[in-house]
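Side project, low priority. Logging it here so it doesn't get lost.
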Amino acid sequence: MKANDILTENTNLHLTHLEDLALFQGKSGAIKAINFLKNLSQLAKSSSAKKFNVTIKWDGSPALFCGIDPSDNKFFVGTKAVFNKGAKLNKSLDDINNNHPDTIQKGENQDKSGLRKKLSVAFTELSKLGIQGVLQGDLLFTRSDLKSISYKGEPYIAFKPNTLTYAVPSNSNIAKELQQAELGIVFHTSYSGNSLEEMSASFNVDLSKLNKVSSVWYDDAYIKDFTGIVNLTTGEYQAVQKAIQDAESYIGKSGNIFDWLESTELGKNFKQKVHANHNNMVRAGTITQDPSAFFNNFAKDYEGRIEKEISNLKTGRDGPAGQRKLLALEQWNKTYFANKSNIEAWYSAWLKLTSIKNTLYQKLKNIKAIDAFELQGDEYVVSDQEGFVAVDHVGNAVKIIDRLDFSKKNFAKESVQYSFINDITESRAFRSRQELGKFSAPDIGNLVYGYILSLILMHNEYKYQRMAQDYSSRTLSYNNFDFFRSNGTDLYLLLHSIFGKGSIIQFSNDSSSDKYVERLQSNVLSIKSLLNLIKQDSLPNLGSILMRMERELKISDSVLKKSRRMISDYSRLKQKERYTLLINLEQYIRKNVPKSELYSVLQRMNKERQLTNRVTAQPSLPKNIAVGAK
């Protein structure tokens, strides 16, 4: 397997979920998934991994590549794209500074100083190991990342490279090793070849020849011993074998669906859309268990996507582009519904593969190299590992993880859970210009102010701060408000209607609205500046800024004026006053924009009724383990 193959998004070669082999690799992938499950079930029964290796999937960051460039025999470190032709490799500390400068994205400065510092430590320390070829690993910590925590009254040495916190008892030998090290890393992939561009990748990692130095804590990801940790009872093993037989039966009933997926454009398009659909189910925290419901829902969703594409065409449905899309949709529907039984059988197989994998994962998760924790509120609680990777004797590898848990965390990393807000990036309140036109321009100005005050309230509550930042960022993501964008936030569309140069909104009171809009045009920078402030981690005193905005927008609503006075002095408000402020804004939004995407958030804040400035426990997703097709 070429190095670039395993690192690209070519899904046939990219490390993927076991059950998705049946989606991306056709019938051979489905059979491969079956073989993995048979071997895993045998391992779980006998605690013997003779036919393949299982590695722990560490939650490290960033991914590091290090080793020798065959072209000049110099040591290098890098984070990605190291195997591309002409790649910028870090072969000195100066290279790190030159290759990883701060950047500007969407008008924002992206500080890369933390990455440069870690790469510098990695370059200095990993060069001592005497690596031959190239190794890839997950960086776990540098010395400054280590900290002391308490768990059940006992002291631990901990580090948090990504989502999980790893920790070991302070009085253990491994804690002493960690504290002596400048860097910790787990290697999981090796590369060899005569040039970086032509190197081949292997999950067979042998670290036995590396130099032992106290300043680097390193290990491979292999699980060395399953004895007494992973064990299926006889009954469980028989149930798994029966489920595997069911999966094989469904695969047999799928007919030529695998050929269709692999050999036709419609099939390939179907694969990508199904993959996106699966990710959406994971985000929602549930997986559809009824193959017939999946079939019908997917058809409806696909048609909706095409209709949305058509609605965005300048020439509309009757134009040439619209007609082509409608013709293609008709052809897709004919092919899709002609394959109904095959597709339902395929989805049944996918469900069954998922169910068996999850059953075996529940056994594997007892394996831990180092204890993993999550911070809930101000307490650490034990967490499962991120997952595992199974590698067969010819080098094929698949991920074995709890998809509804860790994949969801990756979709919403370090943020409040968004499951109670549907598509916060897409306006829920205004699907058309006509819906905005029901208001007068001064009314829109009041709504803008209400949204701004709501975002500031959210920002002042730690649990909702990241959401407020993200919402402001997405509202500003187009750099202007000139065009009507149905995928913009509510606030973006409100701002478009009164500030957008390309706005053609017809307001309910044309004469007064025209004067209001004309006067506002010069004040768009004030709105942008305030939204940029909300994007930051800490807010300055906004009293004078909000007063100026209140004058610019000619705010007339007494509830909003009262809310501005309270929110300007938020840190001094008593809990009861904060709750009053929340109620006022929630009722204002509900009265004027009941379909607002922020209303759900304010409702949730209201139900919690206890707003504090400390970290609070996050609501967890249900651990919905797919039970397979009936």
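Brief comment: Confidence is low (pLDDT under 50) at residues 1-13, 411-426, 610-630.
Revisit when time allows.
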